[in-house]
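Same chain as my last thread, 174 residues:
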Amino acid sequence: MSRLKVEVDRYSNNCLKRITWYLRGKKHMDDGDPAETLFTEDGKVAIQRWYEYGKLHRVDGPAYIDYYESGEVKHEIWFANGKYHRADGSAMIWYYRSGEVRSEVWYVNGELISEEDFKNQLPPIPEEEELSIPELKKELDAALQMSNTDAMVYSLVTALFIFIVGILYIVMVM
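reply #2:
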């Protein structure tokens, strides 16, 4: 099991300057907390960054947040695996001190796109369809049914795959 290591820097007044978490030498935190937090000289949070294995990444929010001295959010950036990305909105947002949005930029998988293109790429949200228990059971049974021929082909392909992996292992060991 790998262990996280922490690096802490302090200002001359002994207030925290930076806390950074590492896993195998790369910035990383996997419990939802930021992997790196920078502070102002008076101890307020200035910047938070979420990393996964050295790349800016966060699933449930922005991976980079910059704060005004007063504590309000100044700038947010969403990342996925080190690329600008947000599937449900703008990937970069700048705010006025009041919290009102100043400007936004849209990225999907690292590619800059217009707001219009972003909105056009989203499929319409389907209305939830409620199925009764018998209907769900019928759908599940249909999905699980496999003809004897399909089952035999699946078994042969699986056996062939295991055989090939075994041969590759033997070749690599030798």
